[in-house]
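Input/output pair, single chain:
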Amino acid sequence: LYQLAAEKGLPSAQFRLGSALIDGGLAGQDIAAGEAWMRRAALAGNIEAAYRLGDRHVKSSPPDYADAATWYRRAANAGHQAAARALASLYLSGNGVARDVEEGARWLRTSANAGNQQAQVDFANLVIEGAGEPGDRASIAGWFEATASSGDLIAAFNLGLCFAEGVGVRKDEEQAARWVRRAAEGVADAQYAYARMLQDGRGVAADLKQARCWFERAANAGMVDAQVAFAEMLLNGRGGACLPQAAAQWFKRAAAAGHAGAMFAIGAQYANGQGLSFDPVAAQKWFAAAAERGHGYAQLMLGGYLCNGRAGEHNPVAGRLWLERAFAQGVQEAANELSYFASKAGSAGAIGLVEELRSV
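Output:
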């Protein structure tokens, strides 16, 4: 039936036939024929077909962003919310079109005003970063409140952030905490944010025990920053028992996801024998991993290890370079280390350099 209707020029039938051929329904998969029918439907005015063609060009190997932009624009101009958001992403990334933040913001605004919740979140983030027009901030909180009041937890979280930052509404930390707490029932980012509020006493009474519980929930949901925060509370005994071995396991989970702070923490545990067996070689390895990712205090520790050979590798030249990197990031202790190792080497010129750095 689709075939007959498609051949008679019915755009909706052409779209359905194209979809079936692409997806492997009906008589089997025929991607080339499916895309041809999809194209005919799109050119005849079927906006869902135009949107799907745009998606196929983005997901092709290699992607054809220029053609994707053409099809997305056709669908977006006809009012397709998701296509407008997709076109915005191309403008914001500069894929297939010249990068244009304001044009990207315009299409995001169009999609958001039409009710696309993902576009509302994207647009809110863009406005917070300074893009958009002067009146945009006022509309953001209204979008989120409408959807949050109907039970959408992501919207509730974003509304909480609006109150926390004063975006489109008067800044109100108690309201922020109320909405973030509601969202925390199912959104890991909200669980983490609410834990921070409890930890700092922002919008709610400070409660380290509850903060620790919420960090744990977010950590179990896979949020890396929450894993680190929970590990820190376990390590220091904040909000409950001091459990350094458990802390090490959480730090390692976060480190496996590439978190430099977690790598530094593992190095420190090996260096101090806290929760992990004292092992200077392992400590240096973890400090190096964090240092290479730009962690200033890891650079300080790695520099010290290399300068004094604490883990068996004595390399003062490399050590000094790491100390200088740490100092360049504002780690003041690195100046003391540089001065100490320079004085041991009897280098007055090096000491003078450190004094000069201190005065910067």
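The chain has a mean pLDDT of 91. The chain has 21 helices and no strands.
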